[in-house]
Design brief:
29% of the residues lie in helices and 25% in strands. Helix 6 crosses helix 7 and helix 10 crosses helix 16.
């Protein structure tokens, strides 16, 4: 992706999977918008390209949306003072491709026949193109290229009477992995997809209630975590209290396993598990499966590799050190006037702590290998710092398949593990050895005996290619059905 005509080195930002968004909702608090902005700060890791808030004071809706990080978008008192009311929803956005555009920044707002309606969405609809074409043929006029707007139009055309029934009707048509928050007519509504692929939790502060993608967003505002929104549940928060309904048939829960591996903040709790503890467990399982080298030091690829590296080092009894230091202030625009500067791009984000590496056999722990470009340069960087040997260990199984449920992944053919064996990947990144945690080891780190192949406990399609929700648009494209291609389709 490029911003303002400036290109990015592929290995800085494009060689990781990206979660697609963070959502937050507040009900019943005088500072609803301010608390929503704080919640979005805590969820900044889920989307860094744009942010927005829509609030409601009982009579009017107020909104502010802009490109940029949360502190840039909501850092001025003049902006926050305009977002009045005791109900608010907010959204952090990560776009999948093309230019970030203001028209795609959420929450989306529309005046419908029953009043104002604001919607924020984390996830991806696998039948958005098909639904969009049907709605356009019926006369709907779209203002964005986001699949979130499909849901707004489905609510608008619903023949049901109540707002809750209109939303129920709308979500009955959509497929995919998603979590939604709605701000309408002094009501806050949350909906989680039937498999619970995308996360959402409920929090409370006094008499006020909150919805968020992760529990760390409750911590920043001093709210207590109440519970997770159940897969397939709609929660309706109003002055009458909290009501729930289940608009879908009961299905086995399949939360996204990559939330534990990489996406969620380590200080969040998800599915009853501390994310940090799970990542340490993953590292320990990885050491049990792949501690076959007599290494001198265990080094994480920061920051996401740190908890797994701690678990690995503890399990195998090897020293842990920060042999690589991350620069946290890498911007998303970087001028690259020459090929030589472009080649040095990885050093913008990582640099070796040479004293702790030189002359040693090093085990590098990272959470994933996607295209392999970053891993290759990091191995090279560690060797150049004087490492005697470099062994790579990965705290997720090989990523062989694309995701369609709210994770931005390259196409399947671009994934290194789809085309190469572990031995070939090792040769490509020029490591002395390479090993991944097994899929059963990953499940054991989550307290399971292993993966139940008859009824998997998590959504793990990136590793297995088993997709729990039908890939309507993708399958239509594969069979030659004309499906309009959207450049920024995901919520």
């Amino acid at each position: 992706m490029s911003l303002s005509g400036l290109s990015l080195p592929e290995d800085i930002h494009d060689d990781k999977l990206h979660e697609e968004c963070g959502i937050f909702g507040a009900f019943g608090h005088d500072d609803a918008a301010a608390l929503t902005a704080l919640g979005l700060h805590a969820l900044q890791h889920r989307g860094q390209e744009a942010a927005g808030i829509v609030s409601h004071d009982g009579d009017h809706f107020y909104q502010h949306r802009a490109l940029g990080l949360v502190d840039k978008v909501f850092g001025k008192a003049s902006v926050m003072n305009r977002l009045r009311g005791r109900v608010a929803i907010g959204h952090n956005r990560y776009s999948t491709s093309g230019e970030p555009m203001l028209r795609n920044v959420q929450p989306l707002y529309a005046d419908l026949n029953f009043g104002g309606f604001a919607l924020a969405h984390n996830g991806n609809l696998t039948n958005a193109h098909e639904l969009r074409n049907q709605l356009v043929q019926r006369g709907s006029i779209f203002q964005s290229t986001s699949d979130t707007e499909v849901i707004v139009h489905l609510v608008a055309v619903s023949q049901q009477t109540s707002i809750e029934d209109k939303i129920t009707d709308a979500v009955s048509h959509i497929k995919g992995g998603y979590a939604l928050v709605v701000n309408t007519n002094n009501i806050l509504i949350g909906v989680r997809d039937p498999y619970g692929i995308r996360p959402m939790s409920l929090g409370r502060l006094g008499e006020a209630y909150f919805l968020a993608s992760e529990t760390c967003a409750f911590d920043i505002i001093g709210a207590e975590f109440v519970r997770e929104i159940e897969p397939g549940e709609m929660v309706i928060i109003s002055q009458e209290g909290i009501q729930t309904r289940t608009p879908f048939e009961a299905r086995p829960a399949r939360p996204c396993i990559f939330e534990y591996v990489y996406f969620s903040r380590p200080d969040s709790v998800m599915g009853g598990h501390s994310v940090y503890e799970v990542r340490k467990n993953i590292g320990a399982e990885l050491a049990k499966e792949a501690n076959v080298v007599n290494a001198d030091i265990v080094v994480p690829v920061p920051d996401s590799g740190v908890p797994a590296a701690i678990g690995y080092a503890e399990q195998c009894g090897k020293p842990f050190d920060l042999g690589i230091i991350r620069n946290h202030y890498v911007g998303r625009t970087f001028i690259e006037p020459t090929d030589q500067i472009r080649h040095l791009g990885v050093k913008l984000k990582h640099n070796t702590n040479r004293k702790f590496i030189e002359g040693k056999s090093v085990v590098l722990i990272d959470d994933s290998i996607v295209r392999g470009t970053t891993s290759k340069k990091i191995v090279e960087m560690v060797r150049n710092a004087g490492a005697k040997e470099v062994h790579m260990r990965i705290s997720s199984p090989p990523i062989r398949f694309s995701s369609f449920y709210g994770i931005d992944t390259p196409t399947t053919q671009e994934l290194l593990a789809h085309n190469k064996s572990v031995e070939e990947i090792c040769e490509f990144i020029k490591a002395d050895s390479l090993a991944y945690i097994s899929i059963d080891g990953l499940y054991r780190a989550l307290g399971e005996d292993g993966r139940n192949n008859e009824q998997p406990q998590y959504e793990d399609a990136c590793f297995t290619g088993e997709y729990p929700v039908e890939l309507v648009d993708h399958n239509n494209k594969m069979t030659g059905v004309d499906v309009t291609k959207l450049r920024e389709r995901r919520g």
